[in-house]
Amino acid sequence: MKRIDWTRRAAAGLACAALLASAACGAREAGVGRTVGPVPMDSVALNLVLIGDAGLPNPAGEPVLQALQREIAAAPEKSFVVFLGDNLYPVGLPDTLTEPGREGLRILRAQMQPLRDTNTRGLFVPGNHDWAQGAPEGWSNVVRQERIINTEGAGLFGMEPRDGCPGPVVVDVGEVLRVIAIDTHWWLHPSTKGGPGRCNPGTEDGVVDSLRIVLATAGDRRTVVVAHHPIISGGSHGGYFDWPTYLFPFHPWARVAGLFARQDVTGREYRHMTSQLARAFVVDTPTVYAAGHEHNLQVFRGSAERRDPANYLLVSGTGIYGHTTPSRRITGTRYVREASGYQRITFLADGRARLSVMVVDAQGNATEDFSIWLDVPVIGAAEAAPAGAGDGR
Hints:
By secondary structure, the protein is α/β, with parallel strands linked by helices. The protein has one domain: Metallo-dependent phosphatases (Purple Acid Phosphatase, chain A, domain 2, 4-Layer Sandwich). About 25% of the residues lie in helices and about 20% in strands. The strands form 3 sheets. A 7-stranded mixed β-sheet has the order 4-3-2-1-12-13-14. Strands 5-6-7-8-10-9-11 form a 7-stranded mixed β-sheet, covered by helices on one side. Strands 15-16 form a two-stranded antiparallel sheet.
């Protein structure tokens, strides 16, 4: 079956390279500029901001972090920010007595600053770069980063899961939201990591069982699982490349086939991880599964027919201005764009939830580029919006 998929992808890639036209390979943008009606501030119970791969901010001032600070400063008491991993490029946090370690501290503090300045609660989850890209020093580097963030966060924000463990860790934010943090790189890391005796749970079956429990006990709260690695993607980690990549074909073909692809959806270890998460989510399905990893912005509507493990799947990995990569519209895509920014879910006091994709320019100005009401049945290509919420078109 893998060989058939490889052949199909190869043929599509060669067609793209020959035509030199993105239209031949699927749309590079979808849903751009489409929004539903705004909501009055006094109806907002909570804004959850999702920002990923922000681990190399511009030392002269990072536009995306500037936009984030303005976003949360408007209502810090109603805001909660999740950094979706790759908080520190390229190899996490080395010894802080070294020059790379001191630079790592600067990078982490730049990301913590908006939360500290506005007194806003938040959470950091680890990514593969925080784990030194799978190198033997990965565990020590990610644990060092966690201790710095938790110490300087002083209870306002922190990094979870701790000790190089997989989680899940639950953060209930008021009565409207349960955030469930997991470390997906734990499943992919080939070297030392937290296991039984250090972590509870420290086994794959234990993680699956714990995820089922924390989802089942959420009550009336919406559930958002936050991690670094997406479950599906129209970007390069999902096996979709822009046409120039195919001019040097060995690497993309190898990755699509699952070779050299530990960090790709097609990789053997990665596929095993997503299958285990699907087991965990099969009964009580999360409202949202949010990840980074891809340096673009994507929104997917989950499908029971495809056995997607969440109602909505988000990719929000452009927390550094200009640090973007192409993506394609694939099955289930509601929005995709190669742009810097972040995503926001607004939870209303009446129980509704509104997703916004915010695109940030070089001056740090954020513009809503897409929005939908979550959990509204899909009718054709558009949602039926709740009364007074706009037509969604």
